[in-house]
Amino acid sequence: MAKHDTVLKRLDEFKIELPSWGFANTGTRFGKFIQPAAARTVEEKIADAGQVHKLTGACPTVAVHTLWDFPKGQSIASVLRTAKKHGVKIGAMNPNVFESQQYKWGSLTNRSEQIRNAALAHIRDSIDIGRQVGSEFISLWFADGTNYPGQADIIERKHLMADALKKAHDAMAENMTMLVEYKPFEPAFYATDIADWGMAMILARAAGPRAKVLVDTGHHYQATNIEQIVAWLLDDNMLGGFHFNDRKYADDDLTLGSIDPYQVFRIFHEIENYRFRNGNLPALAYMVDQSHNLKPKIEAMIQTVDTAQQLYTKACLVDRKALAASQAKEDLVGSENILRAAFFTDTRPILADWRKSHGLPTDPIDAHRSSGYERRAAARRGAGRSADHSFA
Ligand SMILES: [Mn+2]
Is 87 within the bounds of a domain? Predict the structure, then answer.
């Protein structure tokens, strides 16, 4: 077992970025159930993220969506003031190149040069806002793709995407990293332009040295071995970070580890195995990408962070020297049991020690519930809010 102090140090380094959109009244594409305490403005989203950070000590940054959080007239100074007040910073900038009607046939892969340029201009604007708010990541997900065989030339779209990503890469500040996210289907139902990690990696390599692949855990087919993809991307220095969530069926945006905690553990195990082999880890952006339709949003985020910390700690407990020795003997049962021993260890006492050493509540959900934050937010924000029938 790794030494207790080493694990505590690892937990110090383990930071998780929260998504601003996870605190708003977002939900499913078929409708949303309104929560009176949900955030209405970017300032309220940042305040809610600040509440999670205050109670967990692990979430110093907040990812934002350009159009949702910086609409026309939004004061950047106000965002920075609010972030400072709540002890957080702005994390990844996420351009919105998927909602506007002009993107019906794609954004960066649209046949129309004018629309491609509009999408690229929006990405450049996002990079520019990112520079002003101190963001280090531009995080790109595209809905681009086709719904029917024969609809478009797959290779033409590949070339268009590669050209545009290279231009976006060149527009980034020196300290920025580009994250290229993939997803096999939805909204495109035949050929998504960036459908898997191989396509994302080829495009990231072509874009430039500061472009990496973003693994969204919900963006895979059920049987995909995600931890193997993670291990390969790490070994090729192409892993940029994660969007954490869980799912039972498709891209369900459920809280991390709610369905399959062993899979999350196996991902963390591969990351720590890389560290064991190489003595270091590249900077990885651990981000949450979840929209909670039913769970209270702040509680769901705290639960996510707590689960991530518990599972990450389990991965830190794997006895890697014993595992290597066991593997060398082809001892399958012994090797697997080394992983299982770590996975089935109750890491909550270690996490409690870590929290106590940082003056944090040992049970952050309980602390949130007794803080009255939710009730106050609902009273302030809920008034006059009617049922929302929009589909998004
Ligand atoms: Mn995502």
Answer: yes
